[in-house]
Amino acid sequence: MQNIERNDQSFGKVQPSASRGRHGARDRPAPRRAANTRNATQNASRFAKRPELQITNKRKSDMRTKFTAAVFAGLAFSGMAGAAQAQSTTTLTNGSYLTVSSGPLSGSGITSVDLGSAGVTGIVSQMPMSLSYGSVNLNISFQGGSSLYQNAASTWSPVQTNFLRASEGTVTLDFSQAQRYLSMAWGSQDSSNTISFYNQGQLVTSTTGAAVRPISTAVTGSIGSYTTFSFSELTFDRVVIGGTSLSMEVGDISFSDSPQIAPIPLNAASFGGMLAFFGMMGARGGGWRVQMRAFASSLRGRQQRLRLA
C-alpha cells in the first residue's frame, strides 16, 4: 500500500506515514479515555504520597457546596421578601425617612389610633377629639372644612372605618409626649396635600402629595398607599395635615416613640441579595478574607469614580 506523506506540526517537517487504511490504528488519535486513566492514576499516586491533599480538596469541595447553598438561599430569601411587601424609603430632612408601602409595616411598640366607625357616608364630627393610650394623650382638632369623615362606599381605605379629612383647612394631631414614628393609609395623594411635623413649635420636616404620589404609583400602582414617617435624630409632638378643595384623607393611623425604620434601610430583599453576592464570591474560592478585600476594592473604585465625576 502506498505511503502517504503527512505534515507533522509538532516538529515542523514532513515525515512518511505507513497508513494501514482509512481507519488505521496509526492514523487514529489516542483515545481520551487513556489520558484520563493516566491522570487518575497519577492523582491516586500523588494522594497516596500526600494524604493531606485529599483533606484539602474535600474542604474546598465542602466550602463550594456551602457557598452555593448560600447563593440559592439568598436569592430565594430576596425573592420571597420582594413578593411579601413592596416598599420604597426616601430620605427627608433632619434625619427623617419616608417609606411608601403596599401594606402596613410591622414593628414593636406601635400604637394604633382608634377613630371609630360610623357606618355612614359624610361628616361624622368636627368637634375636637381627645384620645388616651397609656401615658400618651392625643388631641385631634379640625380647622376650616376639615372633619372626621366616613365614606362607606370608599375603596381607597384598607379598612372601612372613620378617617381624617383635611378639606379647605387643616387637621392637627397634638401628642403629649415626643414621638418618632407615624404611619397612615394616605388616600389620593393630590398636589395640594401637605403634611408637616413640628417639635415644640419648630418645623422638623414636611412633604406634599405631589412628592409622594410618583413613589406610590411606582410601588403600589395606585395614587394611594401606606405612608410611614420615621425619625432617627429629632422627635415630633405635632402633625399638621392640610388640603384644599382636593382634600387629604388619612386613616389607619399608628404612632410610636421609637423610629422603627433603620437610618440606612436594609430590607429583606437587600439582605438576600447581599447574601447571594458573598455566596458567589465564596464559591470562587479564597474564603471570607478574599471576599471582604474584593468588596472593599469595589467600594474604593466607586468612590474614585464619584470623585472623577
Overall CATH architecture of the largest domain: Sandwich
Head-to-tail CA distance between termini = 75 Å
CATH class of the largest domain: Mainly Beta
* Structural class by SSE content: alpha+beta
Helix count, DSSP H or I runs of 4 or more residues? 5
Shape: elongated
Mean pLDDT across every amino acid position:
74
Rg result: 34 Å
**Remind me, CATH topology of the largest domain?**
Jelly Rolls
Proportion of residues in β-strands: 25-35%
The topology string of helices and strands comes to EEHHEEEEEEEEEEEEHEEEHH
List the uncertain runs: 1-19, 70-83, 263-271, 305-309
Kindly state the percentage of residues in helix: 25-40%
What does this structure look like?
With 309 residues, the chain is α+β, with helices and mostly antiparallel strands. The chain folds into two domains: 62 residues, no CATH class; 161 residues, Sandwich (Jelly Rolls), CATH 2.60.120. 33% of the residues lie in helices and 33% in strands. It has five helices and 17 strands. Strands 3, 4, 5, 6, 9, 10, 12, 15 and 17 form a nine-stranded antiparallel sheet that branches. A six-stranded antiparallel sheet has the order 7-8-11-16-13-14. Strand 13 and strand 14 form a beta hairpin. Helix 2 packs antiparallel against helix 4. The longest helix has 33 residues. The chain is elongated and about 90 Å long. The protein starts with a strand and ends with a helix.
Entry keywords:
309 residues; alpha+beta; Jelly Rolls; 2 domains; 9-stranded antiparallel β-sheet; 6-stranded antiparallel β-sheet; 5 helices; 17 strands; 33% helix; disordered C terminus
